[in-house]
Design a protein that fits this description.
alpha/beta, five-stranded mixed sheet, globular, binds (2Z)-2-iminopentanedioic acid
Length: about 450
């Protein structure tokens, strides 16, 4: 590998030895940039990459809250404002007990490239807390969110940093956080958060956007291969918001999602998660807070596989849509052995780097990277910000049309970027290069700081 790239990766490895997820994403992204760095010596001259792998700022804060029994708890809150060269920092908040700086930093780094790919004016950020929402009452969630926002509000704003949801943070949490922000600021600045409820400035289609966008991206890939989405079977993971959106759009287009997963195992539904009742049940499973996918098997009489992941199931398309590092080498080998042709990442970094390389090397297999495939979520957040700043509400058709166009553009830009550097049909490298290019141009133009 190019000596400059190796030295930056080495620097990150030694400095972040106890943050393996962050090291992993840096290695994955930078290894795609070799031809770009060789063609543009000015980046090395300005040592651009060392600055790109360092967040502009990252901070922690104390979040104290009272449970229903009158006991006090203290969690850590995080916000990483990774790169603001092309717009206000933008990215979700994750509430999950395993959250630590390595998770927030990896998500923030991915977000920089993803947001750039959307073509919209949004920089990259991420945040969250090690708070575990499982089993918490509504009152406990509200008090936690209020306390979280009391600590964060002075560091965010519609032109500064615009958080949204991620795992453990949905419309309910965003509502409680926005209420607290409004009370503290004494102003209706609703562009400060996205993923809001429709009644106070949320965008239509935002809840569906990540899943819809992923399916629009998939359609582009299938078209490239001369295939149609109709009749395709899709293996998904998780049963959260993203998988729900994939089920809805796949059903509309005549495809079917046949697997869902949870911490307890996976379910296989050969008829597909295709009826209104089944799709609505995913929302119910999520809001129950039980975090069990077995409930679906019990309700609809399908098979449940305790403690297993769905990657052994034969399907036309595999869409890991649950969490990071869900697919390791063993699962990747299984997926390849099943003759899967389309491996479409959806969750942020769902594949370990060795498994990703292995899948990309399989003859005939097409691999699409999450930072492109799931970018419809944050892109629609940017559309929500645009509506808020214009004090307008766009129709469902208008938002969906723009989302669809953005996904087509992301796909086309990725294909073009890979071709420009003679990398062939490489959607992974193409997304990294296209995302990099815009942020690099902006950073170079704004001088070294
Ligand atoms: O990973 C992601 O892109 C998100 N969680 C959504 C971020 C956003 O600002 O909508």
């Amino acid at each position: 590998m190019n000596a400059y790239l190796s030295s930056v990766i080495e620097h990150v490895r030694s400095r972040h030895a106890n943050e393996p997820e962050f090291v992993q994403t840096v290695e994955e992204v930078l290894s795609s940039l070799e031809p770009v760095i060789e063609k543009h010596p000015e980046y090395e001259k300005a040592d651009l990459l060392t600055r790109m792998v360092e967040p502009e700022r990252m901070f922690t804060f104390r979040v104290c809250w009272e449970d229903d029994n009158g006991n006090w708890h203290t969690n850590i809150g995080y916000r990483c404002q990774f790169n603001g060269a092309i717009g206000p920092y933008k990215g979700g908040l994750r509430f999950q007990k395993n959250v630590y700086p390595g998770i927030i930093k990896f998500l923030g780094f991915e977000q920089v490239f993803k947001n750039s790919l959307t073509g919209l004016p949004i920089g990259g950020g991420k945040g969250g807390s090690d708070f575990d929402p499982a089993g918490k009452s509504d009152g406990e969630i509200m008090r936690f969110c209020q306390s979280f926002m009391q600590a964060l509000y002075r560091y965010i704003g519609p032109d500064v940093d615009v958080p949204a949801g991620d795992m453990g943070v949905g419309a309910r949490e965003i509502g409680y956080m926005y209420g607290e922000y409004r009370r503290l600021k004494g102003a209706f600045e609703n562009g400060v958060l996205t993923g809001k409820g429709f009644s106070y400035g949320g965008s239509l289609i935002r809840p569906e956007a990540t899943g819809y966008g992923a399916v629009y991206y998939l359609e582009n890939v299938l078209k490239h291969e001369g295939e149609d989405i109709k009749g395709k079977t899709i293996a998904c993971a998780g049963f959260g918001n993203v998988t729900w959106g994939i089920c809805k759009k796949a059903t509309q287009l005549g495809a079917k999602v046949v697997t869902l997963s949870g911490p307890d195992g996976y379910i296989y539904d050969p008829d597909g998660v295709t009826t209104d009742e089944k799709i609505a049940y995913l929302v119910e499973m999520r809001s129950s807070g039980r975090n069990r996918v077995q409930d679906y098997a019990d309700k609809f009489g399908v098979q449940f596989f305790p403690g297993e992941k769905p990657w052994g199931v034969k399907a036309d398309v595999v869409m890991p849509s649950a969490m990071q590092n869900d697919v390791h080498m063993d699962q990747a080998k299984q997926i390849a052995a099943n003759g899967v042709k389309y491996y479409i990442e959806v969750a942020n970094m769902p594949t370990t780097n060795d498994a990703l390389r292995f899948l990309m090397d399989q003859p005939g297999m097409i691999v699409a990277p999450s930072k492109a495939v799931n970018a419809g979520g944050v892109a629609t957040s940017a559309l929500e910000m645009a509506q808020n700043s214009e004090r307008l509400v766009w129709t469902e058709e208008e938002v969906d049309k723009q989302l669809h166009q953005i996904m087509d553009t992301i796909y086309n830009m990725s294909v073009a970027a890979a071709e420009q550097y003679d990398l062939g049909y490489n959607l992974v490298a193409g997304a990294n290069i296209a995302g990099f290019q815009r942020v690099a141009d902006a950073m170079m133009a704004q001088g070294i700081f």
